[in-house]
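Consider the following assembly input.
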Amino acid sequence: MHYSPQPLHIPDGFLSLIVSILCWVITVSILGIAISKTNKALGGKQVPLMGVMAAFIFAAQMINFPVAGGTSGHLLGGVLAAITLGPWAGMLVMTAVIIVQALLFQDGGLLVMGANILNMGLVTAAIGYGLYRAVSGRSQTVKLTVAGIAAWLSVMAGALFTSLQLWLSGTSQLQIVIPAMLGVHALIGLGESLITVAALAFIFRSRPDLLGENSESARGSRGWVVAGALISLAVVLLSPLASADPDGLERVAGDLGFLQSGQSAPFQIIPDYSFPILGQTPLSTIFAGIIGIVVVGIIIVLLGQGMRAKS
Amino acid sequence: MHFDAFDRYHESESFIHRLDPRVKVAVTVAFILSNALLPDGAWIAFGFSWLFLLLANLLSNLGVAFTFKRSLIALPFALIAITVLFSIPGKPLTTFHFLMWDLTITDMGLLRFVSILIRSWLSVQMAILLVATARFPDIIHALEHLRVPSILTTIIAFLYRYLFVLADEVFRLLRARESRSAAAPGQKAGRSILWRAGIAGHMAGQLFLRSYERSDRVYNAMLARGYTGHFETINPHELHRLDYLTTALALIAILLLQLVGRL
């Protein structure tokens, strides 16, 4: 047993059937595009490459580093896969990893697998590749910095999507699940970001051709930049909104006809509920979120420079 | 070689083991679907679901309690559902003080919480039984028959095959780090967290390059042996009458379960 369960994998039973099916529909549509794109673009050689790379992501998740108090950080890999293999191939690779984790290790359910693939494979690859593609042609430091921010954001986006799905299923209360999930994953994301940057820096040093202007990672279309930027923006704007003003989000969901899950008026039981850390108004927390991203960015820049200086 | 580190298959001679993998995949999915469809608090139906699971355990010759042993894997995730205890309106059962909040557990909240846990617990056990009674390559083959796109099943097949090889590579990297992480007595090994994360990242980068270069050699070797883009299997995978019969019976049982749950 060298396998430990990963965070974010939703087991069966925690999502309602409607939410599960909805996620499957989104996931299958995106995967359909990914498959037709990769079938068109790739030669016979690429499929074994993607298979071995999927095994790489799986194995790389076993490399951990001690953090504190017996806990350890490790890689999730969505951003790394998207940057090194290109967006569509990265998505397929992450999908294969999530399917095997669910089938072989019961880490993540089968019926809710659509949601898990969406949260951890598709969203992470879109953010990672979109932001990275935006700075293609820039200096290596800029690329590494953006990759680091993208890695952090991808984990946050996964946590946000998971929280929203749990809430729509009537499994968790929005006011609690979003701050709790995002809080924990802000730290996990930091580990993800550090490992992704260090791994990419290592590849830049030893095989720069794999990440150069003619590589898979440089060939994706500019549309990815828009997609990645939009999802990132949604994460930055939605997370504080959702935690500071859940009623607003609830109203939107109600208007869209989502909330049939028998969860009526869930916020009256706990009166005077507030999260002092996050502040009271949506605006102040959006601001806090942006500050957080800037801080993460600065840390990554400093770290990247430190690593380059040493090598 | 840790060839068995990831294998979940339990060799045995039994009715379930002999079934076609397609049947096992389909019935497992139907069972999990049925659990998701059962309304909260359908205790009798949940009970029958459990009996269904026990019967499957029994027919697999692995022991009635086989799946129970690993079934608590999803339990930590229950933490995420704990808020429903307090958030669903209903008759208050008990109130307690936690940090700065007064929390009231309601009967409806408890009902929903326990139902979520039971659904998850039953579903995860059936999934455990599936991989214990069907070889993983057979499951991949079943997925192919069930119309999962071949590019995905091929990637999964490669993933499974090279997982063992790359896991060995990881153990080698970890051992190398271990052997270079000496520390004087009374002193901590290694430096700051950032430094440690950087080392882990370099190891991931190293693993990436080794995997990338290995995939080249793998492909050339496969071409040399006549690879045409498909995996061949020597298991025929034909559906016999017993397979159809079992599928029908299992589905009828699941339908009855649903009826019991909704009456």
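Chain A has one domain: 17-252+276-310. Ask yourself how this observation constrains the way the partners meet.
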